[in-house]
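Q: what sequence does this backbone want?
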């Protein structure tokens, strides 16, 4: 039997995984050496979380954290993916017989989103090789990583990724959900998911503007004054300031999104070890899935065209022409100052039976 204290450390590390809007869409049921990870997709963004795939990415990152932590304590995970409804994993903890090649455990608690501008200088070949050391293991699991480092391609990708700003402030339902997710007080994170405004690197004047933009009349006035376009331009400027712009492409299956999240977390932890900034960007890829694979009609024809064009332009810059793969998400990496604020994780929901 694995000691309960170690089981809790494994679960707590999993709980530190990134999730959309810091929603932490999971809970854990433990019996002896078995951990059942229950998915709670209702905590995630109802529009962006198409087919719960945002949730599955988060659960993949959770699994990577748990696996790294288990090995750190001399335990292996024997897991099954999607064994039953509402369950992402059933994990059995078994005695490890392998040797840890590299221990990333200490970086799990240090991993954070960083939305600051990064340096544009190229990374050296050794750092790039280290960051992407694990990707060959995921090709047979439906995941591929592509990256660009030339400034022109990075700028074009940034210009298209930032189009979700126009959707967020132009579409009524997206606007409502945006302001439902934004948290203006740090302590609010202790009670619910959401994006703490200071983690978005919004300056004090911008925070004041955000508060005002919740009002539709003020929003329309600011649109006429070009404020939303300025938000867009600022987003492009920030997103384009990086050494690498990376995309993970996957097969169109839910399991592939689990593995994409697992690979994402591995790269993110390696970037943390190298003291590099890391910023995950999901808006346009998630919206593209929503408008192409579902029948809801919350987006206008113009909005759908904007999303489709932005997505296709991003894919084109990555040089991907495989119609069997879709872009799961994008992230940027580069040298940077630490973030101004980091998200607070709520304690995991754990039930021992």
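A:
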């Amino acid at each position: 039997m694995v000691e309960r204290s170690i089981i809790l450390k494994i679960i707590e590390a999993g709980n530190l995984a990134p999730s959309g809007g810091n929603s932490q869409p999971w809970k854990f049921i433990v019996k002896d050496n078995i951990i059942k990870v229950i998915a709670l997709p209702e905590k995630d963004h109802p529009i962006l979380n198409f087919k719960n795939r945002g949730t599955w990415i988060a659960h993949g990152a959770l699994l990577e954290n748990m696996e790294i932590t288990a090995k750190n304590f001399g335990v292996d995970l024997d897991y099954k993916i999607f064994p039953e409804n509402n369950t992402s994993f059933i994990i059995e903890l078994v005695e490890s017989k392998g040797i840890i090649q590299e221990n990333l455990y200490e970086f799990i608690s240090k991993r954070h989103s960083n939305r600051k501008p990064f340096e544009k200088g190229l990374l050296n070949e050794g750092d790039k090789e280290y960051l992407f050391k694990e990707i060959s293991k995921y090709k047979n699991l439906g995941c591929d990583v592509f990256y660009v480092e030339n400034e022109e391609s990075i700028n074009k990708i940034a210009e298209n990724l930032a189009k979700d700003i126009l959707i967020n402030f132009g579409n009524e339902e997206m606007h409502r959900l945006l302001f439902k997710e934004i948290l203006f007080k740090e302590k609010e994170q202790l009670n619910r998911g959401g994006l703490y405004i200071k983690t978005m690197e919004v300056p004090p004047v911008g925070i004041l503007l955000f508060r005002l933009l919740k009002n539709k009349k003020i929003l329309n006035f600011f649109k006429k004054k070009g404020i939303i376009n300025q938000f867009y331009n600022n987003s492009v400027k920030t997103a384009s300031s990086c050494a690498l712009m990376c995309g993970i492409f996957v097969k169109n299956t839910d399991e592939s999104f689990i593995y994409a999240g697992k690979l994402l977390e591995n790269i993110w932890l390696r970037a943390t070890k190298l003291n590099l900034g890391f910023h995950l960007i999901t808006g346009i890829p998630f919206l593209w899935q929503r408008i192409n694979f579902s029948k809801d009609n919350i987006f206008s024809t113009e909005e759908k065209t904007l999303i489709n064009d932005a997505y296709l332009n991003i894919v084109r810059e990555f040089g991907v022409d495989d119609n069997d793969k879709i872009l799961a998400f994008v992230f940027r990496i580069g040298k940077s100052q630490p973030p101004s604020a980091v998200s607070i994780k709520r304690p995991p929901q754990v039930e021992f039976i």
